[in-house]
Every structure is written in C-alpha cells, then in structure tokens.
Amino acid sequence: MTPTPTLLSLAAAAAVLALAAPARADAPYDACMDKAVTNPDYAQCGAALVAREDQRLNAVWARVFPKLEPAQKAQLRAEQRLWIAWKDKSCGFWLEGNGREGQVIHYPACRAQVIADRRAFLADVAETLGVR
Fold first, then answer.
1. Judging by beta carbons within 10 Å of its beta carbon (0-12, 13-18, 19+), is residue 57 exposed, middle or buried?
2. Contact at 8 Å (CB) between 107 and 91?
C-alpha cells in the first residue's frame, strides 16, 4: 500500500517536531506542544521553555557565584558576559529565511538548549568545587 500525501505530511511533521524538541525532557514543553495547533501556540510553548531554562540557569548561578573566591568570581563573571553575548547571537539561523517553523519551533528549542548547556557547565563547576 502506498502512503497517501496526507500521511507523508503527518510523518514529516512528526519528524520535524522530534528533531526540534529539546535534547532533554521537559514535560511542560511536551504537554504544551501536544496541544499546540497554530504558530502562536508553538511560539508560546517555546517562549515558556526558554523562560524555564533561564530560571534554572539563574538558580544555579545564584547558588555557585556567591561561594567563589574573588579571583574565581572575576573570571566566571567575565566568561559569563562573553557567553551572554554569544547566547544572544546564537540560533539566529532559525530566524531568517527558514520559514515560520524555524522561527516558532526550531529557534526556541535551539535557544533553550544553549541555555541548558550553560546551566550544565555551571552545575559541573558547583560539583567540582563542592558548592552546595
């Protein structure tokens, strides 16, 4: 039996959503995306995901930074400023010329992953230095 164009379209859409999903599980994002129908719905799910990742990153920063020695603080602060500048430029590929799907699905998933990666780095710093 040959698949119909509609089935092929649904399969392609499912594959795109799977590729765009954050690298780690995020139950609220998954639940939101399951209910999303329109581009604004998808954009709202992505914005909420990025906001959650920002909150998680800020929580780790608030736990780690105050416990560092002054020289460590200066180094990490300088590095964080460079990372923020990079983060603000990251994932831009999805915003220009890659369609609405790129803007509302891929871009926020990419940005959330960038933030999650930085949070993981800071969590590793905390663990290495024994910061609780």
1. buried
2. yes
Q: Among 115, 113, 114, 105, which Cα is nearest to 45's?
A: 105
Model-wide pTM > 0.85: no
Architecture of the domain delimited by 5-129: Up-down Bundle (1.20)
CA distances from 56 to 17, 53, 92 (A): 24, 5, 22
pLDDT tens digit string along 49-105? 999 999 999 999 999 999 999 999 999 999 999 999 999 999 999 988 777 888 899
Q: How far apart are CA 109 and CA 18, in angstroms?
A: 11
Mean pLDDT score across all residues of the chain: 84
How many angstroms separate the Cα of 114 from the Cα of each of 6, 89, 102? 34, 11, 16
